[in-house]
UniProtKB/TrEMBL annotation:
This is Uncharacterized protein. It comes from Aspergillus mulundensis. It comes from the Eukaryota.
Length: 294
């Protein structure tokens, strides 16, 4: 057995293989695959997360139980309290040094077309295997430890490609964000931590933000990502891109159409935002955008 490129890789790819062999399309997600697309990421809590199509969750439970994994049905399980706040898994299993959580597609990746358990097509816009040589190569430059590189020597496990993975975090950030100036939803903090872990770099000595390390997002996602990564006009609030992305998704079916919409594009001048906020009962001073609208 070769050394693991990141803690949990052997266990995760083994589970992925067991489920794929049972024709369950389990998609590795959460903290662990961040090591494939950004910097090597070791979470404090050894959780291995898979997203599974809702109608296959029961099958996945049965298959893993039959293979000796320890299914926990305790709704007051202490593991749920010990770990940092995070999405409540539909099912979870306790193993000696980690736990496996099964997240439902509808809770996590609702926007993604349903997938199959086998290897994705070469041109699949979202999916890739964890041992695919097209993943960013390993990067290690002194104190900077970039991605691990593809997990060669381990079973290939379905996951999101770097661009789709980045977009998946932005979907969740805008789904769970509260109105500007209203603090943070507990889950938003989880997504923000993952987003920080995937941040772009490009300054000398850091992981490059070029070539195979650079991700290509759809325009509305790219705008939000640029704002979060410091590429925004002077005077613009960091949340501007997220609010605009949220508005775009509400308008185009990516989020429920009746979700509150704080898209700064709806306003032509600053005063309009304040009027609209008052109409919606939001009394705090708005901070969505304090510069010229783009
Ligand atoms: Zn438990």
């Amino acid at each position: 057995m070769s050394t693991e490129p990141a803690s949990g890789v052997a266990a995760a790819t083994k589970v992925g293989r067991i489920l794929a062999d049972a024709q369950v399309g389990a998609l590795l997600w959460g903290a662990l695959p961040i090591s494939l697309i950004a910097d090597k990421y070791e979470s404090d809590f050894p959780e291995i997360s898979f997203v599974v199509l809702n109608h296959q969750i029961k099958v996945a439970e049965t298959v893993l139980k039959a293979c000796g994994y320890h299914l926990c049905r305790n709704p007051q399980c202490t593991m749920l309290e010990e770990r940092a706040p995070g999405p409540v898994p539909t099912a979870h299993f306790h193993e000696q040094s980690f736990w496996i959580s099964l997240l439902s597609k509808s809770d996590t990746l609702w926007w993604l077309p349903d997938w199959h358990h086998g290897p994705p097509a070469a041109q699949d816009p979202h999916l890739i295997l964890t041992n695919d040589p097209r993943l960013p190569p390993a990067y290690n430059n002194g104190n900077v430890v970039g991605p691990t590189g593809p997990w060669l020597g381990f079973p290939g496990c379905l996951t999101l490609n770097p661009s789709a993975f980045t977009e998946s975090i932005l979907y969740l950030r805008v789904r769970d964000m509260l109105p500007p100036n209203r603090g943070s939803h507990p889950l938003e903090k989880v997504w923000r931590a993952m987003q920080y872990a995937m941040s772009d770099y490009g300054t000398p000595g850091q992981r490059p933000n070029t070539g195979p390390y650079r991700r290509t997002l759809r325009p509305e996602f790219q705008l939000a990502w640029d704002y979060l990564n410091g590429r925004r006009p002077d005077g613009h609030n960091i949340s501007h891109g997220l609010c605009r992305l949220r508005g775009h998704l509400i308008d185009t079916g990516g989020l429920p159409s009746d979700s509150p919409n704080w898209n700064p594009r709806r306003y032509t001048k600053w005063e309009d935002i304040e009027v609209d906020y008052r109409r919606r009962g939001i009394t705090d001073s708005p901070s969505v955008c304090i510069g010229p609208l783009r």
